[in-house]
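FORM 12-B: Structure-to-Sequence Request
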């Protein structure tokens, strides 16, 4: 799977985990040079608190387009720090 935004591959892995229709990419498959930490957080009842990253490509910013669970609840420990995408980031095979 590949995560693509603004014609740039942000992450690529054949080891994604699909949860609730979202592909979560292993941290070592992410091209971190395109990410900037965000102060945004949200809460999922069974996964815990999510943290976000802005995606920056070719001078364009996609705010809070990636999220992950740095300290997930027990049920979500299997994808701790895995990155998922939304806000126009295309995930393709």
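FORM 12-B RESPONSE
SEQUENCE OUT:
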């Amino acid at each position: 799977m590949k995560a693509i935004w603004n014609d740039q591959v942000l992450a690529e892995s054949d080891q994604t985990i699909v949860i609730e229709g979202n592909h979560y990419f292993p941290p070592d498959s992410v091209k971190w040079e395109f990410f900037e930490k965000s102060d945004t957080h949200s809460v999922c009842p069974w996964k815990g608190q999510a943290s976000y990253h802005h995606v920056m490509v070719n001078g364009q910013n996609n705010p809070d387009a990636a999220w992950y669970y740095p300290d997930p609840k027990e049920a979500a420990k299997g994808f701790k720090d895995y990155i998922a995408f939304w806000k126009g980031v295309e995930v393709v095979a």
